[in-house]
Design brief:
The chain is an alpha/beta fold. The protein is 43% helix and 17% strand. It has two domains: 231 residues, 3-Layer(aba) Sandwich (Rossmann fold); 158 residues, Rossmann fold. Helix 6 packs parallel to helix 8 and helix 11 packs across helix 12.
């Protein structure tokens, strides 16, 4: 079978990011009081805040930052999963955008190096951020190390305890890693007093990280949900467009997993942008998530806080509520209560479909994928894989081959302990 691996040359690396707000005149803006809006200006890098509200379709990537992208593993390959295709029945052509092959093992580096670059441009004393499963924390840790800035990472408590190798990875890059809720902030202390045994959540870690930056003169770098972060991550989708075009392919379906939404949106938005611009819909877009945190299938589309402490402006998005107590599932990157506002609007318009799968089903597919393709997916990525069976059945019914582009957001080599526990290997 041809075209098993499609790689770009370094010279073909995108020179700009794609901004989907250019095609969204009805995008609902954040709502907040004077203090919450002022907080953004205080803690975000100035260029990041500027890009957050930009309507320009293309934002040029600084030359120095393009060189950093090449340094950390971009461009990533597009790999055809032919053995999995055969197992499913042969009605799909499955192309995996292998973001797990970056230096940190996930798509998160795509925006982490941009955020930390712009923090350095502001002469930041340090950067702070939140992390769930640890992929974002590792990316910020490396991005900060490259920029020569100190990083403070607030890691969701259940992941801090259950994913030590992600923590060690961050520490190898020189970051200070703190369990969240943390004793370092007023919010964290109050949360621990209220529930000393809390497993934490991404919403809590966000409040921790923002307060720490505010109180100590640093810059906060956000790893998902907001427009600027998604825009930085469109480098993956722009690469995928070029790779598919180079082999004469165009996806019939673009699928991926949603924690906050930046992974899936980073791949899908350049494709969706084409359709918004032309006014012609020609592909299916399907976002997958965790049934234990079913924000896409059971959430309400409304204004809500992106952080548990409620100190940031409210965003209009699909949400289960900012104070939700989220179960301690192994896919820590999916333990967030809401969906990115841009992706939420596309879902509300019916342009993006959603599915949720439970941990057991996702993990069984992760094991199957490992055995067929030899690459162990991250627990988060695994939640996309059950959808392939549905797409295979649809293609068989239609009697034609369906080309599927998958955001393979990360590898699971540092999550083997979670898989071992789930499968009773130990």
């Amino acid at each position: 079978m041809k075209n098993l691996v499609v790689q770009l040359n370094e010279d073909d690396e995108p020179s700009y990011w794609y901004n989907i707000l250019s095609q969204m005149p009805d995008f609902p803006m954040p709502q907040g009081d004077k203090n919450s809006m002022a907080l953004l200006g205080q803690v975000l890098p100035s260029k990041v805040l500027e890009y957050e509200f930009s309507r320009d379709e293309r934002i040029r990537i600084p030359d120095e930052l393009r060189q950093i992208y090449l340094k950390v593993g971009r461009p990533t390959p597009l790999v055809r999963a032919n053995r999995l295709e055969e197992y499913l029945g042969g009605h799909l052509k499955i192309y995996m955008k292998m973001e797990g092959q970056t230096y940190v093992g996930s798509h998160k580096i795509n925006s982490a190096v941009a955020h930390t670059y712009f923090a350095r441009m502001d002469n930041a004393k340090f950067v702070s951020t939140e992390t769930g499963a640890g992929q974002w924390g590792a990316a910020v840790a490396l991005g900060s190390a490259i920029q020569g800035i100190k990083a403070h990472v607030f890691m969701v408590k259940t992941s801090y305890e259950g994913k030590p190798y992600r923590r060690y990875q961050m520490q190898m890059y020189g970051a200070n890693v703190h369990p969240s809720p943390s004793e370092l902030t007023a919010f964290g202390k109050k949360a621990l007093e209220s529930d000393p045994e809390t497993p934490g959540s991404l919403g809590m870690a966000i409040t921790d990280a923002v307060q720490y930056a505010q109180e100590n003169g640093g810059k906060y770098v956000v790893g998902s949900v907001v427009n600027s972060d998604i825009m930085f991550k469109t480098i993956a989708g722009l690469e995928a467009q070029a790779q598919m075009k180079s082999i004469g392919e165009d996806p019939d379906a673009v699928i991926g997993v949603v924690g906050g939404g930046s992974n899936y949106s980073g791949l899908a938005f350049p494709f969706i942008g084409e359709e918004l611009k032309s006014g012609t819909k020609k592909r299916r877009y399907i976002a997958c998530g965790s049934l234990e945190v079913p924000k896409m299938t059971e959430g309400k589309y409304r204004y809500d806080y992106p952080d548990t402490g409620g100190i940031l402006p409210q965003l209009k998005m699909y949400t289960l509520g900012y104070q939700l107590k989220i179960p301690a599932v192994y896919a820590g990157g999916l333990r967030y209560h809401a969906v990115a506002p841009t992706l939420s609007l596309l879902m509300a318009k019916g342009m993006v479909e959603s599915r949720d799968y439970n941990q057991e089903e996702a993990f069984n597919w992760a094991r199957l994928y490992s055995q067929k393709e030899g690459y162990i997916p991250a627990p988060e990525t695994a939640h996309t894989l059950p959808l392939l069976k549905e797409l295979e059945e649809d293609a068989k019914k239609d009697g034609k081959k369906t080309t599927v582009l998958v955001s393979f957001s990360g590898h699971g080599l540092l999550d083997l302990g979670n898989y071992a526990s789930a499968f009773n290997y130990v």
